[in-house]
Amino acid sequence: MRLDRTPQQEEFRCTLRAWLTEALPTLPPKPAPSDWPARRAYDMHWQRMLYDAGYAGLHWPADAGGQGATPTQHLIFLEETERAGAPYVGAGFVGLLHAGPTIAAEGTPEQRRRWLPPILRGDEVWCQGFSEPDAGSDLASLRTRAVRDGDSYVVTGTKVWTSHAEVADWCELLVRTDPEAPRHAGLTWLALPMDAPGITVRPLRTLAGTAEFAEVFLDDVRVPVANRLGAENDGWRVTMVTLAYERGTAFAGEVVACRRVLHDLARAARRNGRWDDPVLRRRLGRLNGEFTALWRLVQWNVSHAEHAGRTGGSSVPGAGASVFKLAYSGARQELYDTAAEVLGPEGALDSCHEWTAARLSSLSYTIAAGTSQIQRNILAERVLGLPKGR
Amino acid sequence: MRLDRTPQQEEFRCTLRAWLTEALPTLPPKPAPSDWPARRAYDMHWQRMLYDAGYAGLHWPADAGGQGATPTQHLIFLEETERAGAPYVGAGFVGLLHAGPTIAAEGTPEQRRRWLPPILRGDEVWCQGFSEPDAGSDLASLRTRAVRDGDSYVVTGTKVWTSHAEVADWCELLVRTDPEAPRHAGLTWLALPMDAPGITVRPLRTLAGTAEFAEVFLDDVRVPVANRLGAENDGWRVTMVTLAYERGTAFAGEVVACRRVLHDLARAARRNGRWDDPVLRRRLGRLNGEFTALWRLVQWNVSHAEHAGRTGGSSVPGAGASVFKLAYSGARQELYDTAAEVLGPEGALDSCHEWTAARLSSLSYTIAAGTSQIQRNILAERVLGLPKGR
Amino acid sequence: MDFRITEDQEALRRGMRDLLTARFGPEDLREAAAPPGPQTPPHGLDRGLWRELGKAGLFALRLPEDEGGAGAGLPEAVLVFEEAGRALLPGPLVATHLAAGTVPDAADGSRVVTALDLPQEPGAGEGPPAAAGTAPGGLVEHLDGADDVLVLGPARVRVLPPAALDADPLSSVDPLTPLHRLRARPGTGLGEGGQWRPGARRLRREAALLTAALQLGSAGRTVELAVEHARSRRQFGRPIGSFQAVQHLCAGMLVRSETARSVVYAAAVSEDEAETAAAALRADEAAVRNARDCLQVFGGMGFTWEAEVHLHLKRAWLRAEQWMTAVTAEEELAHALQRDT
Amino acid sequence: MDFRITEDQEALRRGMRDLLTARFGPEDLREAAAPPGPQTPPHGLDRGLWRELGKAGLFALRLPEDEGGAGAGLPEAVLVFEEAGRALLPGPLVATHLAAGTVPDAADGSRVVTALDLPQEPGAGEGPPAAAGTAPGGLVEHLDGADDVLVLGPARVRVLPPAALDADPLSSVDPLTPLHRLRARPGTGLGEGGQWRPGARRLRREAALLTAALQLGSAGRTVELAVEHARSRRQFGRPIGSFQAVQHLCAGMLVRSETARSVVYAAAVSEDEAETAAAALRADEAAVRNARDCLQVFGGMGFTWEAEVHLHLKRAWLRAEQWMTAVTAEEELAHALQRDT
């Protein structure tokens, strides 16, 4: 059990920190949250800076154009960029963290050449077309149809909860190519160019009042067969290969950020006198204990993923990821509920206050990327080996 | 919405209170908790006093020898006896609250004559033989077999969680008479004399260290067919008729007692200085709010049961009973967890302290008489009308 | 004792429900809440609806009949406020109801009255009210839309024109309840003159209770919403309401709303201080936690602005900070444990 | 960074598990706990087992090799203490381990050492220690069975014979952990003489951490027990573990034990004050709440004395009051928020 860094890790951190100190002041001002083209430009500018400095695709394999960094290096990267206040991955999220690794793992040489470099350079933005109005937790029930017609698939259906759809160049799309096959067996993965005729994007306002997501309507959209990743009807496996490519670093940067918010809360509470209320103070202490544990759980999961990677395994055990997501999503909600206590009504009821906005968006954490109920099912059945529920 | 008492109700209360003031000092000293024969004698003595004063079977119908009191009067009775520190129903529990009402509802005139008066007079004690080691939440899966042999049933099996089995004269027994029939359809209700040959009673120690329950082993025990209540294979309905005879008064006395304990906790906390800790003080305040609400919920349920009784209905709606049981069992556990905080380690870790003993026994409240999980199922499916789980 | 809703009370409640179904149903609610966003100023009050509410007796209910009221009591008021909470009706309902006997034309809905809860009553000529700063009393709802402000000191009460309050708007988290924050500046004139009258303590207790009734209505409504959704939404080939995880969320919501109901109704009958605190505490918790659980049952579907659920959560947050907060209620209830036995 | 259990550590852990499986398995635990009841005096310690534990290195583990130890660190100690907690091994394990370098013959299990946690160190000639009264430090476990008492003041530490403590037995809620309560009487002699030595602060932190490791072991064990039961117990024609209500209880237990594990192990490596507080807090909560949920999964079956479950709950209650309590841990962690950034 070692928590100290190796000399190489320490060197990586120092170099990164030095670069961040120089690079961050050169960033343009942050765009307005509602200006999506400006946000894309900003995020891609940052991605290009990372690319030029040799940090793009840090965790991607070297043969896909990445840096082949270990999960621990990736963790250090997330920690340092968060501490330095660097931009988040933003519009590059799907390309860098999902579509890209999927293409790297399953694409033909030609597909890899076509799609991977623009992701790393910040030239092209990807979005994800998986969920549908009637296929949320039960993704495998998706109904968007793709019918083969010569060298193309003709795609019709509706996708929902698609982030950055308005500014994306590509969409990684999961479609049903064989309606007769069992649920998981008739799906196919396609790269959809977002400028193809027949696509309509309708922004969705979230309860926080912002347009983070969109619905994507597909009406006889033609997608070349060459844009298919893997075999026809093998899309479920293709998708899961990458979902399983979890190195324990998901949300790691956010945990660092939450710990900083906790310190800010303590400072704010001391300033407005609420620190003297032991109920609130002990609640903050309890949260500090919780986030301390979560941060160590991240390191634990990353170490195990790294070991698994070295020894030929490829994934952090499901236990680690689901335990972490369950605990973290609850802790994040509790953090911003506590922030409301620190602020008092005048701040907590002011939707312009960043902590109130964060409180609202924290509500999605027990829902998105697998509800807490689904995570508990996974733990019970796949990790604890309880008999399958009916 | 009226919370004040009618003149008749007020008179009932005054008369009862006056009687309690006179009667309670004449009680013998309380027996040791582990001396079951003495406990039986004490409880039956109290029952006889109630009988002589005209309070026995208060809520039983008049034609069964009871007083035909309304649920509100019963509530007043429970409130007043608890406030006065009168004994609980104790060993008379099954006879007065379950077996008796079942016999009153389903028995032949002869059966009613034989069994009801001794219950009211405190002459005979009943216990309940329903649960089995493999039939807990799923009572209908019980396997104790009864085979007809001439004028008798020959009964073989094991019953568990039987209170007062060591000192009972009779056991209301649910047995399987038709193993071929669907689960609920092959059961029969029998009155088992506890001195019949073939019965072995083994006391069970609970986690609180006391012997509150017993296992009852039945080995070819002969029970006269005349002891059968209702028809053969109709035992499930017979049993449920009485379980549905719930007037909202279950646990009502306990809620009164819990509210008294809350005041005692506040007094103890002020004495030992822990009252000055706002975390504890506010927790006590919150509990006060919870038990205030629970007490009003009891009155709400009782009023509705009373109205249903007047208008031909017979039961408090399932919602009321399950909502109350869920909320009360949790609140009681929280009460005694808070008591441990008030006491501090020296009291909370002392098993002789009454609050520590109560904390241990409170653990059964989310399990006995339908686990909280079963109660939630009932609310979801029968009250809210959600589709049946599979 | 007959702790049930009488037939007259039921008729009153049903009248209010019918009115609100017709005039402020879920579609109207959604429409009123759109367009959203911190950039968009919140909608003003619907004066026509306000007058209809007045005509239906929402404000005059407890006035004597010779003053145009119905001579009803707090239990009746609680029932109609529960309906208002169920519909998530916006506006300073509690303040206008409490002002009905005091402010001319408030009773029939011709005037809109909001309220300011002052923890400290300013003496004449003294500095700014203590409300400004961090206390909840520093917030006033619907100040721009109101004709009068009912100012409650700890013991005494007065009425002021909205312009007398030196306050800044803030971007309210509840899109249908605009808020102003009092500025801490001397010379606002709140304490001047001799118009302070007694009776604030009773009004404050009634305000807490009626707010609890609003919360109770919202808590009951989110149970309905969750159950409706769980019945109709299918995943994995069956309604999600057939999964125990969802069933038990809904059952827990019902437990919260029904225990809150018993104590809110009882406090309306008993008019007891501590019981009102219990009602506020339980109803606030039921409204907030039910809305959150309802969101969880809705999953992604509830996370859009168009869904009604988030409006319940935001209103519940806001109402929980009005009048009697959890801290005050818990301390009051702790205090009561010493008082009576 | 390689935050995993090394092969050597795993071998050490497995050795302790094998020893305990052979010498103090579930059957031995049940037997040790019977007969029960407040009337029956709790069992003494098994001196033979104690010596075997000593031989296996449970106490000497962290002593230098030339003092008969293994020269191991806190991480190794945490792993073997986790195993002890898993088996619910009774006895003053933490105190004897901490005393191994100080009290002759403690290291090899020949002597049993218990501890007294004094919030205030008495000056020579002063009155009674402040421990007596309501503070948790007023309780001593296994006083009758111990040969020595390690007394920890806030900064300094000393060793006393058990007879030097003026204490009354109480009826411990944990049948396998007898307790004495210090009497508040002057002249007990705790502060006399010059035998106080420095180092209490480190020992107290280590005691909190090793106690957390015991709790972690118990929390993990109750997950196993619940899962085993849920797999085998059938109701309604299927294993109860196929019901989501039971599945989700078990999943919640796993989340508690695994988050506690990460911070308990990390605190063993970092030896940080605040991280130790976090470890104590999370492990206490995991042990107590897992034991309660395990009881719920067991239903009536877990409510008998013979079931192992209640022993976990009672021990967890007791350990939660030893060394670092929740209040202290939360205040320490709040304090830490001001300190570092």
Structure description:
The complex is a heterotetramer, with 2 copies of chain A (390 residues) and 2 copies of chain C (341 residues). Chain A has 3 domains: 7-88, Butyryl-Coa Dehydrogenase, subunit A, domain 1 (Orthogonal Bundle); 127-233, Beta Barrel (Butyryl-CoA Dehydrogenase, subunit A, domain 2); 251-382, Butyryl-CoA Dehydrogenase, subunit A, domain 3. Chain A has 12 helices and 8 strands. Chain A has helices at residues 7-23, 36-53, 71-84, 93-106, 109-121, 235-243, 252-272, 278-310, 318-343, 345-348, 354-362, 372-383, and strands spanning 126-129, 145-149, 152-163, 170-176, 187-193, 199-204, 213-224, 228-229. In chain A, helix 4 (93-106) packs antiparallel against helix 5, helix 7 packs parallel to helix 9 (318-343) and helix 8 runs antiparallel to helix 9. The longest helix of chain A has 33 residues, at 278-310. Chain A is globular. In chain C, the strands form 3 sheets. Chain C has a 4-stranded mixed sheet, covered by helices on one side. In chain C, strands 2-6-5 form a 3-stranded antiparallel sheet, with no helix packed on it. Chain C has helices at 7-23, 26-33, 47-55, 74-87, 93-99, 200-232, 244-270, 273-298, 309-321, 326-339; strands at 113-117, 139-141, 148-152, 156-160, 167-170, 179-182, 197-198, 234-235, 238-239. The relative contact order of chain C is 0.12. Chain C is an alpha+beta fold and 341 residues long. The model of chain C is unreliable at 123-137 (pLDDT under 50). In chain C, helix 6 (200-232) packs parallel to helix 8 and helix 8 packs across helix 10 (326-339). Chain C has 3 domains: 1-111, Butyryl-Coa Dehydrogenase, subunit A, domain 1 (Orthogonal Bundle); 127-198, no CATH class; 200-340, Butyryl-CoA Dehydrogenase, subunit A, domain 3. In chain C, strand 5 (167-170) and strand 6 (179-182) form a beta hairpin. At the A-D interface, helix 7, helix 8, helix 9 and helix 12 of A face helix 6, strand 9, helix 7, helix 8 and helix 10 of D. Chains A, B: Belongs to the acyl-CoA dehydrogenase family.
